[in-house]
Design brief:
eight-stranded mixed sheet, Dihydrofolate Reductase, subunit A, 5 helices, alpha/beta, single chain, globular, two-stranded antiparallel sheet
Length: 178
């Protein structure tokens, strides 16, 4: 059975990006000297699903860091060709979350990294997420794009643990209650 997994950072006030989509505040605090568990997390992942905003932010950074297959869910981008440098790694689709997971499962995927605020919220609402790792960055943005803004229904979570890092980052792990 295929499962969705989240590994994401937010500001202390719950934003994943500024209102304009910028993540400079996050990149400035990228502590290369600290292991925040991303390498261990991504080792168990077969594919990545992300939304248009996340794709555009990552793509605009200039260096595509993902080596796993990436499925970008976007009605807008699904009508456009994938940039040539990403052909064979990235696909655009207007599939629903359920359709996307069924498609990846049919391709042999078991663990999918779900990334991007709107995509995470839609997958949570459909109970397609098994667990979340949320790292809080010690900065208050005051406004921006919220990770969980607009969740229509309550999503009960089980707290699995929290650790803090010397840099001030605090990381919590949750399992979605079934």
């Amino acid at each position: 059975m295929i499962t969705g997994h989240v590994f994401i950072a937010t500001s202390l006030d719950g934003f994943i990006a500024r209102e304009n989509g910028e993540i400079d505040w996050l990149l400035e605090r990228d502590e290369a000297s600290e292991d925040h568990g991303y390498a261990a997390f991504i080792r168990d992942i077969d594919a990545i699903i992300m939304g248009r905003g996340t794709f555009e932010t990552v793509h605009e950074m200039g260096v595509w860091a993902h080596t796993l297959p990436v499925l970008v869910l976007s009605k807008t981008l699904s009508q456009q060709p994938v940039p040539p440098a990403l052909a064979g790694t990235v696909r655009f689709s207007d599939a629903s979350p359920q359709q996307a997971m069924a498609m990846l499962e049919a391709e042999g995927c078991r663990h999918v990294y779900v990334d991007g605020g709107q995509v995470i919220r839609s997958f949570l609402a459909l109970r397609l997420i098994r667990d979340l790792v949320i790292t809080r960055i010690p900065v208050l943005l005051g406004a921006g794009r919220p990770l969980f803004g607009g969740v229509a229904d309550e999503v009960p979570l089980i707290h699995e643990g929290t650790i803090s890092f010397p840099s001030g980052l605090v990381q919590s792990r949750y399992t979605v209650e079934r």
